[in-house]
Amino acid sequence: MKFKALLLTVLLLLVKLNISAQDSQKYPQDYFRSPVDGRIFLSGTFGELRSNHFHAGIDIKTGGVEGKNIYAAADGWISRVKISPWGYGHAIYIEHPNGYTTVYGHLKELNGAIAEHVEKQQYKRQKFAVDLYLEAHEFPVKKGEIIALSGNTGGSGGPHLHFEIRNTNQEPINPLLFGIEVKDYITPQINAIRIYPAAVNTLINNSSKAKTFKLSGWGKNYQLMNNDTITIEGDFYLGINTYDKQNDSNNKNGVYQIEVWVDSSLYFMQNVEKINFSTSRYINTLIDFDFYKKHQSRFQRTYISPNNELEIYKKIQQQGVFSFNDDSFHQIKYVVKDLKGNESILSFTVLSKLYRNSEEPIKNDSLFLPNQEYSFENDEVSVFFPRNSLYDTLLFSASSSKNSNSFNHTIYDIGRVGVGLHKSISVELKNINIPIELKKKVYIGEYYKKEISPYSAEWKQNNISFKTRDFGQYLILIDSIPPKIQLQTKIKPNTEIGRLKFKVSDNESGINSYDAWLNGSWILMKWDPKKSTMIINVDQSQIGNNLLKIIISDEVGNVSRKEINWEVPAKSTNNSDTLNK
Length: 581
Known about the structure:
single chain, mainly beta, twelve-stranded mixed beta sheet
């Protein structure tokens, strides 16, 4: 018997250690090279938990600076270039003969002929933000060819390279499964677990509320800090707060795989081998969304809600809910792994008590199911929920209260902040009395943690409507102030003008459009929203008088205009004598 038990333990261990190896065997190991010089340090891992989405690539550090060489990971051709003030910023997509696509995001500059092509298209379309799809023969690249310089464009929080590998369905796959080397001998960190009641009458240590349990331990082994055994009566599910680190880096990155074992049997397993963009927002039902909104800390739950289409689950029993319904001790073990096979283990004991199920079904007209359409209406608001906009059953309510920041001194509470929405709901605020001349200046502001996020709005007679994917508090606001434009470049007489830098801001409805003309011809203006800057290269100015005109509008149509004149003397087209605003 001892031999059989030992053999079973060894076999289970081998299965666990080979999971990442088996995933790696699905993908070529020597096809792609590193997109950067030197050793790779990660500031973000694949599948990491982000706001409303999973991270679809790896974030490679560039030493905190911009301008590092970025290389094509393999032979192929540039199939797409997207330039945007948001998201990936300046990004290159390379398609490879083996069917995979690599993506390089947050770039500072593109290199060579592709840079010239993109700028020509920007001028042709008279747009800074462009999304260009290219033919295979237009811009071929070789493995190791410099395609760009690293940067900090788009939604980047600091200089780095965002790197992806996608399959033929454009699904991002964990790049570390392709043999890209990252030094990692560090086991994941398990910070805490939460246990949740899965039924009204469930008790967790005699409490009907979810409970957080702190942990202690060293190295790979963890245990409950203050409890040897947790007593649970009724159905429950689990949540875990965990992160991973790599060698010589302090970043707290995402883990690769989470397992839950019950009495030596695998009960639940998820991993981030690949992510589908169409399902990425379901992260809001994977995590304890309510806890996250309150504490900015994420617990990954075992519970699979009715509207959860994530494909990260490899093993699920009873939708991730635990139903012991006995008077017995049960051993539960969490195993958290990274792709290098480093793992951390949390073991604890649950004393199960027989469950006395005396629940009565809740009857309420405002009880909404996730797979149906619903409408809610009272004297002040109406709300429409499309099918599958909810993750789980919701007891919905809407109300209002006084607020001096709103135009009509009213703030509207639409649902509860701690509940996630998958699809946009339509909200209509009723009987809003606003002078006709101000209606076109109205926008909706979501008020959260003393900050306001703007939403565009439409009028239907005296009702104002908008769409949102967030429950919360909403205000009716008026924006009558145009965007601000401030020249930051200091130009002195007889000094060459290489570029003009402007500080541009709009603190209310937000910037909608921006254009500039130099001597009557449209000129490219590069916008970086997070720095509130716009940059114009003007080194093609003509001899004599030069005139730059800028027009910027916000989301409700307020317009700012600025004109700048300068003189280029005939003796030199590179020097400027005067600048008149």
